[in-house]
Specification:
The protein is mainly alpha-helical. The chain contains 14 helices and no strands. The chain is globular, with a radius of gyration of 26 Å.
Length: 341
Amino acid sequence: MGDFVRALVTVLIAFVALGALLGLLYWLASLLPKKWQEGARFWVFLLPAAVAVVVGLLIPALRTVYLSFRDDTGRSFVGLDNYDTIFSNQGTRLTVFNSVAWVVIGTAFTVVIGLAVARYADNVRGEKGFKTAIFLPGAISLVGAGVTWLFVYAGPPFENGLLNAVTGAIPGLPDSMGGDGQRLWVLERGFGGFDPPNSIPGFNTLLLIVIFIWTQAGFATVIFSAAIKGVPDELIEAAKVDGATDRQIFYRVMLPYIQTTIITVATTITFAGLKAFDIVAATTGGRFGTSTIANEFYVTTFVQGRGGMGAALAVLLFILVVPIIILNRRAQKRAEEMVGA
């Protein structure tokens, strides 16, 4: 209790000191000539944010890049060896392909499901209840979602889960597809007699992506539904007058109009897929060929104590994010120009 009180007092003192410093700087700015006062006050309020960005983001980022060129102890310069290891080592290379699968499959299915539900659930009886049910998984933490789905994927030696109960009840289903009701779903990479090479994501990785889609589909549905409801009635009525069907209106009027929203949602889900860690950690811990870049970074840095390799994985994750941001901004700009035209 004493440590908590001391920490609380320290935080309060820090806030008071920051407020006093800003007040002092603001007072000093008011003493300047009038033509300089507005600019000085602007910098007074910008200063804390700028310091926070530099200290909390820029400096750690530069240090991470620096460490990525050092060995695991941080003492020797190794150049691009850490990056070469990522792509030459089969296990580490698989984590990159797994992350790509999370981004491509997870984003594509989430966007498609979100659009489908937003379209067909609008203006139907029980719309609010249906959309609430779709959105609820998004209110669960990703760790909680992973634990929940472990009961679905459970197999021997534990009591079989829901998926084994379903597949075991299907007559004639091969054992390799769960026909015996004894399959270890999150442990086995193969499925239906197909055993994928160790260099590509296995079927158990796809099952983890299903959990990700389950948690993100509600978010996409809510955003898409709001965007669709925002399409001007005049556009829809004009399309109907021209003889367009509901299907044509959706694909040729609504989708182009909400293109910016679709891009924004897809980008958000892409970032979440690249950072996939919680679900993997809560289900397999990254074992059995299911690890992702984020999970591998955690294990490498904090479990194995390999700082250089961990820093290289963090930099790689950042490099993968940058082009997505650029493409997202360009696509949004084109969409805005299209709507404005």
